[in-house]
Write a structure and sequence with these properties.
Number of helices: 49
Distance between the termini: 121 Å
Largest sheet: none
Number of strands: 0
Oligomer: single chain
């Protein structure tokens, strides 16, 4: 329509270069027509590459996914990955109540609840899949957290592409910027580190905010101004006999107008018919701003909104001038005289003078931007207060000295140089302790920054991409520069995730312009001053094209390979610290940090070696840290005394190091040197009032030493420090149970389970409290809850089985006992409880089956054979019992000649029971020593055989034993003799053995009853005399006692 209309003007007025009286009027009419044509052209699209735009977006996403692919095999990288993910109760135990509480808490000196909620959602998915986040191998779930990061990075890369497409007409510039953002090595840390989620999500919402903001600005434009002018531009180009111009070579051709049938079908003037869209988009902008601030505060948000608004405004003006000039050239065909062309240019320039579209002057635009700025300011204030409260500003000011502007320039130069040349990357960069303007590094950094600023300033005459991109970078990076030092580091890769977009936009525009000049046609393009562009026509051969695309491919492959290599530095904490050591081999504490990572991963020997190396290299600076590492490594290797000596050296090297004092006290407590540990804790605990691990360790020692009031005070302090501490409530409940305050313990545990329902030990102990309070139904419910949240909660299964047995629900009890045995893998307290259950149910045959299955199914411990002989004796299989006990004796004799570790497997101490310490089962049994147990089993067999001649020797040997294992064996033997005597009341020998045991235990009346029963049942005068002698001996012993 525009072209035909222009031709009608030419035909009506004749040749605009003609002479005569009507020439000036005809020239004015022609110029007016050209001006109208320029206005109607509006914004144009990206040129001849429009058909490749959609695949370009997919290319950006694929590049981002490729970059993140190696990170899927990573694990949690220590630090915040543990504090904010694995060890954060409200995160790792997802529930609706926890989600609400996360929204109201400051975490690690920042308010960032949305990423924490995303972690919580991932934990819920892992729970549904039956996986655990912190496990390695097939059952581990760290891959899910890394997969989410990779997907978020892909989405961000796509949004970067979309944003640049709106701010730049050439789809190749947007695609190149998106791909560079997707694969640049500086982006790896955010993607590979689980806690990069904060940066990923905040950037996501920033980009969504800017997209919605630009749409909101567009709403105020006349409808026609947003129409696609491509067809009109092409028609005007054809009308002038010229080929259709390709995409602009200028990096300043910024805007992608929307070409669609919708735009053409709308009215060509006026504002939207309804304000509904405006309200919706405004609300979306505010919600996205809020979400960005709740992910990671972005102080630069209002500035970025202005940057993209100005860039988009300039783009509209540039493209209107471009369309108008081409229309004018097509219609005038170069026939205008010089004065007429000058008049035409002046007319076009005057129409473009108003660069602020009418819709942008709406009050709602200013109101929306102001609201976004206020939201940003509010969240910034909240995070600043949190950082001040954590003393991070104070710590940063103490460690980093010198002019802050100079330090900021050094950091800025580091970022600029590593964007161009991303090598030597790591998770930490050592800051310069003291800087000055005269330092060589400061001077070099200042030169880099000034060079970049000069290049940007020089580019403004021909393009404003440099201005906008560098403005984006400075606005985004400014809050991380050490103008206000709060972190002990020079720079960080993760800080560039959002700012790098501006620099990559510049790089993409420059790169695409160079590629066009090298490999294709140079299109006509406008300049900001309105001068005609460079005419098209320069072409080069295929060799140059191959060279250009080959170079681009090499750059892409190099960046991707570097990113893949960089991702290996974030596989785990050991890999991360090893890379830090590689980059800073001469820096103090680097060997120690790697050593701590190795120690935490279970490699104590490597930690010991690194601690000694740290001590050798930096004894004057980090001796205390090195000695602590050496001490804890030795402690993990079982060398307690050497570990204590090393920790004492650490304390001597740094008497003010609170951590060293705490570790020494803890090592003393673990070594059983309670008095020394008590003194050490008394010195250090007042200096660590908020250090809950130290308070918990000290409270455990106080309980062990009978200082119950002191222990209770420390547990209460832990809850004051952190109301969500999960250890203090359980410990306080255990103390309440020990004091028979079952109701108070039940209330405390119920309160804990209300916000931490996954705490299986708390649910188990709650069941204990209900059992003691004679509430069997509530107790069963608590035990069932425990096994629901943790199917391997052995203590809960065992306590449930015992309660069912007490309620005479024998069938259920048996199934539960057997399941407890399976879950425990043969834990001794579970096996013995099941053994006693079968005896109480008069099913010794089932007890025999239990022990036979255990001994033949891999339970090679000699104690299993002894208990099998024991059960066979009670069942009546005396000959098999004798053979079994004889084989156990042979095994025990062989074990005496074996190494200690091997002998322990055959007859050493049983494993410690798991679960709550207040459990109903005999999980607190002292160690069942095989020797005393074998003596008791032989005495039982002699009493049941009967073999009187073989009764007294093992019985006297057992009585002579004074160990904890002998005490347990005596108690088990007495219970077995009672059980056997009740079922064989005419057998005298169980009564004699019981009388001897009871006499030794000082239970004189019960012993006398046993001896009298033996006297009644035994008709052998010799044995009756022996019994009388034992009675007198027992009476004398009792009198002595």
């Amino acid at each position: 329509m525009g072209v035909s209309c222009s031709r009608e003007v030419l035909m009506r007025h004749g040749s605009i270069g003609g002479r005569g009286a009507g020439a000036p009027a005809r020239r004015r009419d022609t110029i007016a027509a050209m001006s109208n044509r320029a206005r109607e052209a509006g914004n144009i699209a990206a040129g001849s590459g429009e058909g490749r735009v959609r695949p370009a977006g997919w290319l950006v996403v694929v590049a981002a996914l490729l970059m993140g692919l190696p990170t899927l095999r990573g694990r949690f990288v220590g630090g915040d990955d543990h504090r904010l993910v694995l060890d954060h109760v409200l995160v790792s135990r997802p529930s609706w109540s926890h989600a609400v509480q996360l929204l109201g808490m400051v975490h690690r000196d920042l308010y960032q609840p949305l990423p924490l909620l995303s972690f919580s959602a991932e934990f819920a998915v892992l729970r549904a899949l039956g996986l655990q986040a912190d496990l390695t191998g097939p059952g581990g779930g760290a891959w899910l957290f890394h997969l989410t990061n990779v997907l978020l990075h892909g989405l961000n890369a796509w949004l970067v592409w979309r944003l640049i497409r709106r701010l730049h007409p050439d789809w190749r510039v947007a695609a190149c910027a998106g791909v560079l953002f997707a694969i640049h090595p500086l982006q790896v840390e955010v993607v590979a580190w689980v806690n990069g989620r904060m940066m990923l999500m905040s950037t996501l919402f920033v980009l969504l905010t800017l997209q919605a903001w630009l749409r909101f600005l567009d709403l105020g434009e006349p409808r026609g101004s947003r129409a696609d002018g491509r067809s009109e531009l092409r028609a005007s180009a054809r009308a002038g006999g010229r080929s259709e111009p390709r995409a602009s070579a200028r990096a300043d051709d910024l805007s992608e107008p929307r070409a669609s049938a919708r735009a053409e079908s709308r009215p060509s003037h006026g504002l939207p018919s309804s304000t509904g869209q405006s309200w919706v988009l405004g609300l979306i902008v505010l919600l996205c701003v809020t979400a960005a601030m709740m992910s990671k505060v972005r102080v630069s948000m209002p500035v970025l909104m202005l940057v993209v608004a100005v860039a988009s405004r300039n783009a509209r003006g540039a493209w209107r001038r471009y369309a108008g000039r081409n229309a004018a050239r097509a219609e005038a065909g170069g026939s205008l005289g010089s004065s007429a062309r000058a008049e035409a240019r002046g007319s076009l320039a005057s129409q473009d003078g108003d660069r602020c579209p009418a819709g942008w002057r709406r009050p709602s635009v200013i109101v929306l931007w102001t609201l976004a700025a206020l939201i940003t300011a509010g969240f910034t204030w909240l995070n600043v207060v949190a950082t001040v409260d954590s003393d991070m500003f104070l710590q940063g000011a103490q460690k980093l000295q010198g002019p802050r502007v100079a330090r900021a320039i050094i950091a800025l130069a580091w970022y600029l140089s590593h964007v161009v040349w991303p090598v030597g990357l790591s998770a930490w960069y050592e800051p310069i302790a003291v800087v000055s303007w005269a330092d060589a590094r400061t001077v070099a950094s200042l030169a880099i920054v000034l060079l970049v600023v000069a290049a940007v300033a020089a580019s403004v005459r021909g393009t404003r991409v440099g201005l906008y991109g560098f403005g984006w970078f400075l606005a985004s990076i400014a809050s991380t520069l050490p103008l206000i030092p709060s972190r002990n580091l020079l720079a960080a890769d993760r800080y560039t995730y959002l700012p790098i977009i501006g620099l990559l936009w510049i790089a993409a525009a420059v790169g695409v312009s160079l590629m066009r000049r090298q490999a294709g046609v140079e299109a006509a393009a406008p300049s900001d001053e309105g001068q005609p562009g460079t005419p098209a026509g320069r072409r080069v051969g295929p060799a140059a094209r191959w060279l250009t695309w080959g170079g681009a491919t090499v750059v892409f492959a190099a960046l991707l390979a570097t990113s893949w290599k960089t991702s290996g530095y974030y596989l785990d904490s050991v890999a991360k610290m090893a890379r830090n050591l590689d980059i800073h081999p001469d820096s103090p504490n680097m060997h120690a940090k790697l050593g701590w990572a190795c120690l935490q991963s279970g490699d104590a020997r490597r930690g010991l070696e690194l601690g000694r190396e740290e001590l050798r290299l930096h004894a004057d600076e980090t001796a205390d840290e090195a000695w602590q590492l050496i001490g804890l490594s030795l402690l993990q290797l079982g060398e307690a005394e050497a570990a204590i000596d090393a920790l004492e050296r650490a304390v001597a090297a740094a008497p003010d190091n609170k951590q060293a004092h705490y570790r020494l006290a803890s090592a003393l407590a673990d070594a059983g040197r309670d008095q020394e540990a008590l003194a050490a804790f008394r010195r250090i605990i007042p200096q660590l009032p908020n250090f809950n691990p130290g308070l918990f360790k000290a409270a455990g020692l106080y309980r062990r030493m009978g200082l119950r009031d002191d222990a209770r005070g420390l547990y209460e302090q832990m809850l004051t420090n952190n109301e969500y501490d999960i250890y203090a409530p359980v410990a306080l409940a255990e103390m309440d149970v020990e004091d028979a305050r079952y109701e108070a313990a039940a209330d405390r545990l119920a309160a804990l389970l209300a916000w931490y329902p996954e705490h299986a030990a708390a649910a188990t102990n709650l069941g204990v409290c209900h059992t003691r309070l004679d509430r069997p139904d509530e107790a069963l419910a608590a035990y069932r809850h425990a096994v629901e949240v943790d199917p391997r909660a052995v203590q809960a299964w065992l306590n449930m089985a015992l309660l069912l047995a007490a309620e005479d629900r024998t069938a259920e009890a048996e199934r539960t006992f057997l399941h407890a045995c399976d879950v425990s893998g043969g834990q001794w307290d579970v096996l013995l409880a099941t053994h006693h259950f079968y005896l109480n149910a008069d099913r010794p045959d089932r007890a025999v089956d239990l022990w036979r299955a255990w001994t033949t199914g891999g339970g090679g411990d000699v104690r299993g054979r002894i208990w099998l002989g024991w059960a066979l004796t009670l069942h009546g299989g005396l000959s098999e019992a004798a053979a079994t006990l004889q084989s156990a004796a042979v095994m025990l004799q062989s074990a005496a000649a074996m190494p200690q570790s091997t002998a322990a497997k055959l007859g050493g101490s049983p494993p410690h029971p798991q679960g709550g310490s207040s459990a109903e089962s005999n999980g607190s049994l002292p160690h069942l020593e095989a020797g005393p147990l074998l003596l008791a089993a032989r005495a039982l067999l002699a009493a049941a055989a009967p073999s009187p001649s073989e009764l007294l020797a093992p019985l006297d040997a057992l009585i002579a034993e004074q160990s904890a294992g002998a005490t347990v064996a005596k108690s088990e033997l007495l219970d077995a003799l009672t059980w056997y005597g009740e079922r064989h009341p005419q057998e005298p020998w169980p009564y004699l053995a019981a009388g001897i045991l009871l006499s030794d235990a000082g239970r004189r009346e019960e012993a006398m009853a046993g001896f009298e029963a033996f006297q009644t049942l035994c008709d052998d005068p010799g044995w009756r005399k022996i019994a009388q002698e034992r009675m007198r001996r027992g009476a004398a012993g009792a009198g002595g006692r």
